[in-house]
From TrEMBL:
<dbReference type="InterPro" id="IPR006439">
    <property type="entry name" value="HAD-SF_hydro_IA"/>
</dbReference>
<dbReference type="InterPro" id="IPR010976">
    <property type="entry name" value="B-phosphoglucomutase_hydrolase"/>
</dbReference>
<dbReference type="InterPro" id="IPR023198">
    <property type="entry name" value="PGP-like_dom2"/>
</dbReference>
<dbReference type="Pfam" id="PF00702">
    <property type="entry name" value="Hydrolase"/>
</dbReference>
<keyword id="KW-0413">Isomerase</keyword>
<dbReference type="InterPro" id="IPR036412">
    <property type="entry name" value="HAD-like_sf"/>
</dbReference>
<protein>
    <submittedName>
        <fullName>Beta-phosphoglucomutase</fullName>
        <ecNumber>5.4.2.6</ecNumber>
    </submittedName>
</protein>
<dbReference type="GO" id="GO:0008801">
    <property type="term" value="F:beta-phosphoglucomutase activity"/>
</dbReference>
<comment type="similarity">
    <text>Belongs to the HAD-like hydrolase superfamily. CbbY/CbbZ/Gph/YieH family.</text>
</comment>
<dbReference type="InterPro" id="IPR010972">
    <property type="entry name" value="Beta-PGM"/>
</dbReference>
<dbReference type="InterPro" id="IPR023214">
    <property type="entry name" value="HAD_sf"/>
</dbReference>
Length: 221
């Protein structure tokens, strides 16, 4: 195992909930009610694609021009940016800091594979930016999760093969992306939504170097 590619929202920090709250607020303004089950579909996918799914849920896709949709996405992002303003190292999810430091100590490369354009800012707020060897820029990809490109690009940027990586995710689209890239996936969350991963754990606390190494070793046989 030469590298680990991390999703951000819901793995390094609990911004997955902030995204949900911000979308819920926009949805309410449009008369579209969002619940947690629906929100699972929004995890891992881009801002534009999320808005498209929300508008489709309310049967409002045809009601807005491209420019109006852009304004709605920006409105959501402004609410989200307010929510993340006060974030700091205290918002790193349990076990993550220890895991990152232990991986670094072992010489394992770390990459960020998040669809979020806010990724670099959040890493900085968490004080983790120096630990990461690379960040995939989601704006440069031709396809988002569940397409494998983001994880493939992460491996390329680190100069390792996909077989030498592990991917960590909390979204079904993300697990699919990792699997399609030919990497072993570890998911954090619910077995029913994330069962396609090689291993599912309930909490980030369970992500240890030993677990990652064992899952990787099993994946390469
Ligand atoms: C991640 C999150 C999504 C979010 C997307 C875009 O994939 O899981 O919930 O919509 O990033 O984030 P952004 O910060 O660019 O709006
Ligand atoms: Mg996520």
């Amino acid at each position: 195992m030469k590298a680990v590619l991390f999703d951000l929202d819901g793995i390094l920090t609990d911004t997955a909930d902030y995204h949900y709250q911000a979308w819920k607020k926009l949805g309410a303004e449009l008369g579209i009610e969002l619940d947690e089950a629906f929100n699972e579909q929004l995890k891992g996918i881009s801002r534009t694609e999320s808005l498209a799914l929300i508008l489709a849920k309310g049967g409002l896709e045809a009601q807005f021009t491209v420019a109006e949709k852009e304004a709605l996405a920006t409105k959501k992002n402004e609410v989200y940016k307010k929510m993340i303003e006060q974030m700091s190292a205290k918002d790193i999810l349990p076990g993550i800091k220890t895991l990152l430091y232990e991986l670094k100590e072992k010489g394992v490369l770390l990459g960020l594979a998040s669809a979020s354009q806010n990724g670099p800012v959040i890493l900085e707020k968490l004080g983790l930016e120096e630990l990461f060897d690379t960040i995939v820029d989601p704006a440069k990809l031709s396809a988002g999760k569940p397409h494998p490109e983001i994880f493939e690009t992460g491996a390329e940027q680190l100069n390792v093969s996909v077989q030498e990586c592990i991917g960590i995710e909390d979204a079904a689209a993300g697990v699919q992306s990792i699997n399609s890239a030919g990497m072993a996936a570890i998911a954090v969350g619910d077995e029913t939504t994330l069962g396609a991963a090689a291993k599912v754990v309930a909490s980030t606390n369970e992500l240890t170097v030993d677990l990652l190494t064992a899952v990787w070793a099993e994946s390469v046989g």
